[in-house]
């Protein structure tokens, strides 16, 4: 009855899909050529091939998806104030208005059974390795990662996660996955532009009141203050986010079967329609849909974003 996927159901033919058998053959060729080994980031698959070798083929049609990360992937504040709403998650949600990544890749029926959301509101990169370990138990063919905003959103700029620690934690997260699932693909989202979110949200009186409850104080605290100290504080957060995104790009590039979005999420200009009208900071349903579009475009591209 045709090829069977990892869950025993008929495997759909999608553009760019690569049968498992082809992957086994490619791995065997790599061994014969003496290419097998570990890379410096703990990836136990074959290292990145030389210019004369064929690069691993990216499967643009994975049959199962797990998501890890923070409140954005949980749909926080997209439906109700200060509440998760995973049904509108860009990665695994079922809401038709969002058309999540899982629905786009798997179809609505299969997305309900073969996508899982392990993100946690408030999570930082240090929490992602444990989320990866839980996700790995499902043996997904693709894992999405969106984390880093909470590493910059701290009570003060001095409490932001150091870049060296952020790098180590992200490498640990990938290594945790690779130990169990060396062939699982990873999509990595850039950290959003928090300063732009501040600039958009400070026009809302309601949003600023909710910000006072503790949402991203390093960027959103004293939202209307524009003195040199406040400007320096926001610029410091902005620079740290850019450094985090550089880490995500570099570490992902050194791991086989990993795609970074090329700063697409960071560069996306979220406007009033894409922001929660509860807090004017987290994505609305429309914002979640835009994140799903970016992820789908990156994952299904014939060539990775550079």
Q: Could you name the key traits of this structure?
A:
single chain; 306 residues; alpha/beta; 7% strand; globular; disordered N terminus
Could you walk me through the main structural features you see in this protein, from its secondary elements to its overall organization?
By secondary structure, this protein is of the alpha/beta class. The protein is 40% helix and 7% strand. It has helices at 20-32, 101-106, 108-113, 128-136, 149-152, 163-180, 194-201, 205-211, 217-220, 228-253, 264-267, 285-300; strands at residues 65-69, 115-117, 142-146, 185-188, 258-260. It has a five-stranded parallel sheet, with helices on both faces. The longest helix is centred in the last third of the chain and has 26 residues, at 228-253. It is globular and about 50 Å long.
SS summary, helix count: 12
Whole-angstrom Rg = 20 Å
- Ranges where pLDDT stays below 50 over 5 or more residues in a row are 1-53
How would a textbook summarize the main sheet? Answer: 5 strands, parallel
Please bin the fraction of helical residues.
25-40%
Strand content: 5-15%
Principal-axis shape: globular
Query: Which structural category fits the helices and strands?
Result: alpha/beta
Order of helices and strands, N to C? HEHHEHEHHEHHHHEHH
How many β strands by DSSP? 5
- N/C terminus separation: 40 Å
Helix and strand topology:
Elements: H1 20-32, E1 65-69, H2 101-106, H3 108-113, E2 115-117, H4 128-136, E3 142-146, H5 149-152, H6 163-180, E4 185-188, H7 194-201, H8 205-211, H9 217-220, H10 228-253, E5 258-260, H11 264-267, H12 285-300
Parallel strand pairs: 1-2, 1-3, 3-4, 4-5
């Amino acid at each position: 009855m045709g090829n069977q996927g990892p869950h025993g159901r008929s495997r759909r033919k999608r553009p760019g899909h690569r049968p498992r058998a082809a992957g086994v053959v490619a791995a065997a060729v790599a061994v014969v050529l003496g290419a097998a080994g570990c890379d410096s980031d703990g990836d136990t698959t074959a290292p990145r091939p030389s210019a004369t070798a064929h690069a691993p083929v990216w499967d643009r049609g994975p049959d199962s998806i797990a998501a890890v990360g923070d409140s954005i992937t949980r749909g926080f504040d997209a439906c109700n104030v200060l509440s998760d709403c995973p049904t509108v998650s860009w990665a695994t949600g079922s809401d038709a208005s969002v058309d999540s990544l899982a629905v786009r890749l798997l179809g609505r029926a299969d997305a309900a059974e073969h996508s899982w959301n392990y993100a946690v509101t408030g999570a930082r990169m240090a929490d992602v390795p444990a989320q990866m370990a839980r996700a790995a138990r499902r043996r997904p063919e693709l894992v999405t990662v969106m984390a880093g905003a909470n590493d910059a959103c701290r009570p003060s700029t001095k409490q932001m996660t150091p870049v060296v620690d952020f790098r180590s934690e992200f490498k640990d997260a990938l290594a945790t996955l690779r130990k169990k699932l060396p062939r699982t693909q990873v999509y990595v989202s850039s950290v959003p532009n928090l300063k732009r979110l501040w600039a958009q949200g400070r026009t809302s009186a309601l949003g600023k009141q909710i910000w006072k409850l503790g949402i991203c104080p390093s960027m959103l605290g004293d939202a209307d203050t524009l003195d040199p100290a406040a400007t320096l504080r926001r610029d410091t957060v902005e620079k740290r986010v850019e450094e985090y995104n550089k880490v995500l790009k570099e570490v992902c590039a050194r791991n086989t079967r990993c795609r970074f979005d090329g700063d697409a999420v960071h560069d996306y200009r979220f406007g009033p329609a894409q922001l929660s009208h509860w807090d004017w900071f987290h994505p609305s349903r429309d914002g979640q849909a835009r994140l799903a579009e970016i992820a789908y475009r990156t994952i299904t591209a014939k060539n990775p974003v550079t």
